[in-house]
Design goal:
With about 300 residues, the protein is an alpha/beta fold. It has 2 domains: about 60 residues, Chemotaxis Receptor Methyltransferase Cher, domain 1; about 190 residues, Vaccinia Virus protein VP39 (Rossmann fold, 3-Layer(aba) Sandwich). The protein contains 12 helices and 10 strands. The N and C termini lie far apart (about 55 Å). The relative contact order is 0.13. The structure holds S-adenosylmethionine (SAM).
C-alpha cells in the first residue's frame, strides 16, 4: 500500500472513531479492508481508496471504520469487575437509590454483547436485590455489525466456553444447532444501539454505572481525555465508572479518581461534580459504613 493511501485511511479511521492505526498496523489494514473492497465489487485497495478520495461515500466510510474496530470480548471478562459489582458497587448504590429503586447501567463499547449479558446474568443471580428494583441496561457500540450480533444473543460453542460458568450456560442459554441462544428475558432487559463515543453523548441521559472497558486503549491521549470528560457528564454524581485492566484515568483526566483499593473502578472528582457528591454515603467517603442489609431474592427488573 502506498504511504499516502495508508495516511488517508488511518486519518479517516482516527477522525471517525478515535482508533489510532500506526504504520506497523498496515498488515491489519490490508487484511481487514480487502473483504470490504470486495463487498463493494472492487478488486483492489487502491480502488477503495480512490472511492473514498473522490466521493467520500458514507457507506464505504462506515464499512472501513467498522472493519478496523477490534471486537475481542468474552463473558465475565477478568471476572473481578463483576464480583466488585455484586459485592461493592450495587450494595452501595442501592442503598442510596432506595427511594427510586431504579438504576441505569451503560455498557459503552459492548462489542458482541458478552459484557452487557454478563451484567444482566449477574443481576439476575444477585439474591440481595429487593422487590420493585428496576435495572435498565443500555449497550452501545460504534460497530453496527457488532450491535446486530449482540442483539441476536447467539454465540458459538467457542464463545460460550470463554468465561461463562457452566451453570450459567445451562440456565441462561438454549442450544440452537451448533450455536447457543441467550434467554430472551435477558435480551429484553437490555437496549442495544449503535453509538459513537466521539459524538454528543447527552441524548443517552444519565447513568449510575458505566462500563467503558477495553476501548480507550485504542485511542490517543487527547481522545481519551475528551471521551472521559463526556462520560463524566453522563454520570450521576455518585456514579461509578469501570475501565479495562490496561486503562486508567491517571495523567489523562481530572474528572475521575480511582476508588481506593478497587482496581479498575473510578468515581467522579469534585471538579466533575461541582462539589455536589460529597455526601457521607459516597463510596469513597464512607469506607467504614456497614454493608446494607440483605434483600430478599427477586428476579431483576420485573
Ligand atoms: C475490544 S472491544 C471491548 C468489548 C468489551 N467492552 C470488553 O471489554 O470485552 C472494543 C469495542 O469498542 C468499539 N469501539 C471502538 N471505537 C469506538 C467508538 N468511537 N465508539 C464506540 N465504540 C467504539 C469497537 O467497535 C469494539 O467493539
Amino acid at each position: 500500500m502506498k504511504p499516502e493511501d495508508f495516511t488517508l485511511l488511518a486519518n479517516l479511521v482516527r477522525d471517525q472513531s478515535g482508533l489510532v492505526l500506526t504504520q506497523e498496523k498496515i498488515y491489519l489494514l490490508e487484511s481487514r479492508l480487502m473483504p470490504v473492497a470486495r463487498s463493494f465489487n472492487l478488486k483492489t485497495l487502491e480502488e477503495l481508496v480512490q472511492i473514498i478520495r473522490q466521493r467520500n461515500d458514507s457507506q464505504v466510510v462506515k464499512a472501513v471504520v467498522d472493519a478496523m474496530t477490534t471486537n475481542e470480548s468474552l463473558f465475565f471478562r477478568d471476572m473481578k469487575p463483576f464480583n466488585q459489582l455484586k459485592d461493592l458497587v450495587l450494595p452501595r448504590l442501592m442503598e442510596k437509590r432506595q427511594s427510586t429503586r431504579r438504576m441505569r447501567i451503560w455498557s459503552a463499547a459492548c462489542s458482541s454483547g458478552q459484557e452487557p449479558y454478563s451484567i444482566a446474568m449477574m443481576l439476575k443471580e444477585e439474591t440481595r436485590l429487593s422487590a420493585g428494583w428496576k435495572f435498565d441496561i443500555l449497550a452501545t457500540d460504534l460497530s453496527l455489525a457488532m450491535v446486530e450480533r449482540a442483539k441476536s444473543g447467539v454465540y458459538s460453542q467457542f464463545e460460550v466456553q470463554r468465561g461463562l460458568p457452566i451453570n450459567y450456560l445451562v440456565k441462561y442459554f438454549k442450544q440452537d444447532g451448533d450455536k447457543w441462544r441467550i434467554d430472551s428475558a435477558l435480551r429484553e432487559n437490555i437496549q442495544f444501539k449503535t453509538y459513537n463515543l466521539l459524538h454528543d453523548l447527552s441524548p443517552l441521559g444519565q447513568f449510575d454505572i458505566v462500563f467503558c472497558r477495553n476501548v480507550l486503549i485504542y485511542f490517543d491521549q487527547p481522545t481519551k481525555a475528551k471521551v472521559l470528560e463526556a462520560i463524566s457528564k453522563r454520570m450521576a454524581p455518585d456514579g461509578i465508572l469501570y475501565l479495562g485492566g490496561a486503562e486508567t484515568v491517571l495523567g489523562i483526566s481530572d474528572r475521575f479518581q480511582p476508588m481506593p483499593g478497587e482496581r479498575g473502578l473510578y468515581t467522579l472528582t469534585d471538579l466533575a461534580t461541582g462539589g455536589t457528591k460529597s455526601s457521607p454515603a459516597s463510596p469513597t467517603a464512607s469506607p467504614a459504613k456497614p454493608a446494607p442489609p440483605p434483600f430478599p431474592a427477586r428476579t431483576v427488573g420485573r
